[in-house]
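Students often ask why inverse folding is considered easier than folding. One informal answer: many sequences map to the same fold, so there is more than one right answer. In these notes we will look at a single instance of the problem. The structure comes first.
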């Protein structure tokens, strides 16, 4: 009696797709995708400047992620991106100091920011009292925006132009380091899980061919193109690409 044929091997299951980022990571991905698509437009840098400009009133903006992620996607423009962040950060400090000195503590209450003597403002106030405006220059060397120190200097009566120049003197070094790290050494950034997850998602959306729907979307496939008018009519039994019999 002949041996029964061996059963065909069962194919290995396809790996499950990585879960898409949610929450703040998803908002960062959407922001990076929109900026990436507009990278070659004239309004790209002004649109990018909105984020460091509004960082004093909206501290939840993903400025550090954008400062590293955008140069990683466009490494040749990292200098222009860093310069945009520096100028916008100084302009934001000037506008914030002007607004605070014009409206006073009532503006802080309206924005929901802590009053002087509480939290970070208390620590920044002691530093400014000891070292003056040079404390703002030193704190501007940190990776994050010195929001509390700018507010304390404004409430202390430091002229807005002095505050803006102090921020302008301190921000170039940390901003240039973050932007250069994103452009020159993206493999170092990918050691951080959050950064790697965001960049991987953006690159996956970036690599999707134009006109082809993303897997899992409800968008219909593009229609088949009809042949030119001088194309010979298909013979009987051959399939017409346009679907006309």
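Output (designed amino acids):
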């Amino acid at each position: 009696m002949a041996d029964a044929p061996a059963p065909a091997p069962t194919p290995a299951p396809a790996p499950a797709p990585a879960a898409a980022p949610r929450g703040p990571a998803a908002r960062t991905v959407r922001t990076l995708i929109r900026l990436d698509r507009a990278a070659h437009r004239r309004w790209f840098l002004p649109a990018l400047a909105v984020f460091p400009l509004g960082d004093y009133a909206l501290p939840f903006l993903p400025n550090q992620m954008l400062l590293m992620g955008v140069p990683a996607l466009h490494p040749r423009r990292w200098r222009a991106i860093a310069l945009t962040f520096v100028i916008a950060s100084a302009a934001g400090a000037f506008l914030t100091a002007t607004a605070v000195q014009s409206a006073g503590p009532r503006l802080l209450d309206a924005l929901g920011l802590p009053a002087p003597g509480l939290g970070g403002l208390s620590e920044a106030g002691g530093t400014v009292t000891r070292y003056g405006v040079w404390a703002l220059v030193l704190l501007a060397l940190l990776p994050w925006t010195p929001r509390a120190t700018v507010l304390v200097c404004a409430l202390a009566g430091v002229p807005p132009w002095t505050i803006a120049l102090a921020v302008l003197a301190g921000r170039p070094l940390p901003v240039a380091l973050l932007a250069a790290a994103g452009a020159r050494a993206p493999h170092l950034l990918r050691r951080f899980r959050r950064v790697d997850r965001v960049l991987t998602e953006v690159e996956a959306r970036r690599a999707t061919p134009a006109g082809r729907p993303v897997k899992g979307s409800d968008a219909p496939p593009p229609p088949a193109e009809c042949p030119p008018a001088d194309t010979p009519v298909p013979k009987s039994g051959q399939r017409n690409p346009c679907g006309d019999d």
